[in-house]
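Please fill in the sequence for the structure shown.

STRUCTURE ENCODING:
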């Protein structure tokens, strides 16, 4: 849920990148840090472990200021994908305002995708959030790898869900990363504008919210 401080006129939002291990959650965040040029952008905090897997979380803060002076900030988090770190995943997911679910496009990883998605639904329920109403985007990453599951098959499989159409991406190349984030911002705006009247009271229209937070610097860099 959004964290609003009327004394400071500050609204903080939390976005979590969730998915199975090694699906590309951290790479998404690294590319966003490289590609985005919002009004304000903090340093990317990345905890690197021996096996290149996220143990706790990564975090990227970005923000903008409305014409009323509202200080709007987004903090982007990843979670560890490994089952043994489920308590950490649940803690990071707590009070989330939006989720990007990063799935792996390789045929061998489809069961892991399903398990991770089921785990997301369970953990959202445990922290008091509803997967059917929470703004969310489903991204299928690693489209640059040969012999991935065909896009048409994936789109048809998810066609009857609230998250259709899916976003196809190669986070390693930066493809689909900003697009995933923009779609989430658009869905997130609808929900928080109803509560905080961003356009009417703070001069932050949907276009300003999406474009200023996801504006590209045009200087992408490869990520490992």
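FILLED IN BY: designer on duty
SEQUENCE:
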């Amino acid at each position: 849920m959004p964290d609003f401080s009327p004394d400071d006129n500050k609204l903080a939002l939390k976005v979590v990148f969730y998915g199975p291990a090694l699906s590309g959650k951290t790479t998404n965040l690294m590319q966003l840090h490289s590609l985005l040029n919002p009004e304000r952008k903090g340093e990317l905090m990345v905890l690197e472990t021996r096996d290149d897997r996220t143990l706790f979380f990564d975090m990227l803060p970005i923000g903008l200021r409305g014409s009323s002076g509202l200080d709007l900030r987004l903090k982007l988090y990843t979670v560890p994908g490994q089952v043994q770190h489920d308590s950490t995943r649940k803690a990071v997911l707590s009070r989330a305002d939006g989720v990007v679910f990063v799935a792996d496009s390789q045929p061998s990883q489809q069961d892991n995708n399903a398990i991770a998605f089921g785990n997301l639904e369970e953990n959202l329920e445990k922290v008091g959030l509803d997967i059917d109403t929470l703004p969310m985007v489903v991204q299928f990453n690693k489209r640059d790898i040969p012999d991935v599951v065909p896009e048409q098959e994936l789109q048809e499989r998810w066609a009857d869900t609230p998250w259709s159409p899916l976003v196809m991406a190669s986070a390693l190349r930066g493809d689909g990363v900003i697009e995933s984030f923009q779609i989430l911002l658009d869905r997130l705006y609808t929900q928080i504008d109803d509560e905080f009247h961003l356009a009417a009271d703070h001069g932050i229209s949907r276009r300003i919210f999406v474009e200023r937070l996801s504006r590209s610097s045009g200087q992408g860099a490869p990520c490992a």
